[in-house]
Write a structure and sequence with these properties.
By secondary structure, this protein is an alpha+beta fold. It has one domain. Helix content is about 35%, strand content about 15%. A hairpin with a 2-residue loop joins strand 1 and strand 2. It is elongated and about 55 Å long.
Length: about 80
């Protein structure tokens, strides 16, 4: 599988690669060079990825409590 650079330095990833990785227009890729090879890594973040970096809540909070806290913070 090959691809070519355009005059502006852009390249098109083959559809099979995009589909295989679940890439969509607008997705971001990290670009690295290792041993004369270009490494592209999808930078996709899921809700589960974000939740896993947050600490577990000490207690459950209702939507009303959240709205009240947001209102209080906005007034300060």
């Amino acid at each position: 599988m090959t691809t070519a650079l355009t005059s502006s330095g852009q390249l098109t990833l083959p559809k099979a690669v995009r589909d295989g990785l679940g890439l969509k227009p607008g997705d971001h890729l990290a670009v690295a060079v290792e041993n004369d090879a270009i490494i592209l890594t999808p930078l996709t973040v899921t809700l589960n990825d974000l939740c896993s970096i947050l600490p577990k809540p000490k207690r459950r909070v209702s939507i009303d409590e959240m709205n009240r806290a947001i209102g209080e913070s906005a007034r300060e």
